[in-house]
């Protein structure tokens, strides 16, 4: 029976080739597809927003609340120039995106970068490798993410279908919270006292509280749909601390993705989504329901008798 030994130079050479393969293979994979560089500019600025009969100045991107939507395809390069016009130091985190060879673009303040000071800018430059689905971006310093957030939609490569029926339309739905008080003051008070932060005054869907809150009948998210069509709802929980139950009256939902990973389709009437999580669900509308209205509702999970914010509700 023959036998042999691998000498040290051969071992080093083999390790070298393995490391080269690990470095080059992702690039070769991207090379098979047309990669597009998509440019965005985020101006961090104050904007007066009225909710619950009260107008307050909040930190936004480009004056929008929630912030602008980022759309790309798997393999695309994203270049986002963030310009800070407010007194607060700012960083932006691209939640769920694996920063392969671009860790400096991840966004946690004082960890991967120094915060962007007033009057300064920073360019986030990264490529989405091996991922597609629903993500989101948000501030990653103090409590600025209470208002500084928005969706990231990474579509499959061209000519690559979803592993579920092609939806008629795709709709991002972001859950959030609204405080009448200054959120920076809320978290600073909690840090000084050692107690939990004060509860928010409302939960929101795409920045709107809904009709169960005072002065909010007009501040209601409404989704107009066609009968008998399939809609892909991209659910994102941007609430700071709340686990939320989500449902649509007289309709079932089919979960097809969780945290940007396709799942075995699961039919359910209620979805529980935790802070920072994303879940994609298919909504099949009623085939015969002319001029009908169905309530969309989200409410927080509570395991004890402690008080919590009211149900947040909108209609479709």
Short recap of the structure:
The chain has helices spanning 8-31, 183-193, and strands at residues 37-51, 54-61, 70-73, 77-84, 92-95, 121-127, 133-139, 149-155, 169-178, 202-205, 230-237, 244-248, 253-258, 261-268, 271-273, 278-284, 295-300, 312-315.
What descriptors fit this protein?
316 residues; six-stranded mixed beta sheet; globular
Please state how the strands of the largest beta sheet are arranged side by side: 10-9-11-16-13-14
Overall shape: globular
Quaternary assembly: single chain
Annotation, overall tally of beta strands = 18
Note the run of SSEs as H and E. HEEEEEEEEEHEEEEEEEEE
Cα-atom radius of gyration: 23 Å
pLDDT < 50 runs, ≥5 residues: 1-8, 307-316
Main β-sheet, in a few words?
6 strands, mixed
C-alpha termini separation: 76 Å
Task: Tell me, rounded to a whole number, the average pLDDT.
Answer: 89
What structural category arises from helix and sheet content?
mainly beta
Count of runs of 4 or more consecutive helical residues: 2
Strand portion:
35-45%
Helix content: 10-25%
What does this structure look like?
There is one protein chain. The chain has 316 residues and is mainly β. The chain is 11% helix and 38% strand. The strands form four sheets. It has a six-stranded mixed β-sheet, with no helix packed on it. A four-stranded mixed β-sheet has the order 2-1-4-6, with no helix packed on it. Strands 3-8-7-5 form a four-stranded mixed β-sheet, with no helix packed on it. A hairpin with a 2-residue loop joins strand 13 (253-258) and strand 14. The longest helix has 24 residues, at 8-31. The chain is globular, with a radius of gyration of 23 Å. Residues 1-8 and 307-316 have low confidence and may be disordered.
